[in-house]
Amino acid sequence: MGSAGTLGLLMALAAALSPESQPSEGSGTVQPLQSSAQGQWYTDLPQNLRLEDGKLVLQAVYDPAARAIRDQPYTSARVRTFGKYAVAPSQAHPTIKVEARIKVPAGLGLWPAFWMLPADNATAACSGCGRHGVWAASGEIDILEAANDATKALGTLHYGGPWPLNSYTSNNYSLPGGASLAGDFHTFGLEWDAKQMRWYVDGQLFATQYSGNGTRSGWFSLGADATSLEAQPLLSDAPFSQRFYIILNLSLGGEATEFTKINGVGIAPAQLNATLATPQAMLVDWVRVWGYSP
Ligand SMILES: *[C@@H]1O[C@H](CO)[C@@H](O)[C@H](O)[C@H]1NC(C)=O
Ligand SMILES: *[C@@H]1O[C@H](CO)[C@@H](O)[C@H](O)[C@H]1NC(C)=O
Ligand SMILES: *[C@@H]1O[C@H](CO)[C@@H](O)[C@H](O)[C@H]1NC(C)=O
Ligand SMILES: *[C@@H]1O[C@H](CO)[C@@H](O)[C@H](O)[C@H]1NC(C)=O
Ligand SMILES: *[C@@H]1O[C@H](CO)[C@@H](O)[C@H](O)[C@H]1NC(C)=O
């Protein structure tokens, strides 16, 4: 910790998490697994989303009935604190920590995530919109993503210009011996202050990223109106100078899903269907946000 101070619990999030049961793509349009995109349809049915033994269960299920609804043969779940809770470093709490204790699943095509999107200016139609425009000019913070066998926990920032002028920087962490993270619960955490973010697994620091202070030498935003990669970054700590809300989701990769590709090759529906035995669950013990007082 750079800035010493007293640590206080700002929020324990169980009550602030709401299910999202829209189609799975950010645009709101449905892209069936057959055509490439993610392979799930999110629901809030108990088969996909429930509390069990004190844990939040997000579960991917092979569900032929789901195909009849939206041509997606799998259902899963996504929850978020949108409209209920959002946070950023502040004068009262210059450093905050967002963490969750999670047991991720492992299996070809699985893509569990614990992440954040900007809260201001987000709408149902534009969940990545923030004060600096559409994704990724307003930023995305990925505290944890794991793919397939879950041998790596990825921590990533997306920022820069409006898509396709977006940039990102990613780091990853492996358990000793390269064991799968799926074997047990682990605590995934992010410490965030105006100039710096730090990623942790079980208290082990594995990545640090910095504000570019209005240059490209760290995170930056080109703002809502940028039309070229050469645009001048905003002279601030944007896009991570605004409030973000928290999301937990369990997705399935498709043929065009970069994240679950193996050696550059996406996961075809038949392959997913042949390999992935469902149900597969992402278990969340708790989500907490802490603030350090100066
Ligand atoms: C699930 O989370 C990851 C987080 O990085 C996100 O990129 C992905 O689009 C999400 N999938 C869906 C369908 O919400
Ligand atoms: C954000 O919302 C405010 C108020 O609705 C609006 O004035 C502003 O233009 C929006 N900014 C962006 C980048 O969409
Ligand atoms: C993990 O980090 C290493 C070292 O930076 C990098 O070479 C590798 O591509 C990363 N893996 C993933 C899946 O991002
Ligand atoms: C941004 O500013 C902070 C604090 O003034 C400084 O510590 C950091 O090195 C700067 N980062 C860059 C990339 O210049
Ligand atoms: C997928 O797997 C299930 C269960 O093994 C099977 O019933 C179904 O026919 C398979 N094929 C497709 C295309 O969903």
Automatic annotation (TrEMBL):
Record's keyword annotation contains Signal: yes
A UniProt-annotated Pfam family: Glyco_hydro_16
Domain GH16: 24-294
GO biological process, one term: carbohydrate metabolic process
GO molecular function, a single term: hydrolase activity, hydrolyzing O-glycosyl compounds
Keywords noted in UniProt: Signal
Signal peptide stretch: 1-16
Highest taxon in the source lineage: Eukaryota
Family classification: Belongs to the glycosyl hydrolase 16 family.
Protein name: GH16 domain-containing protein
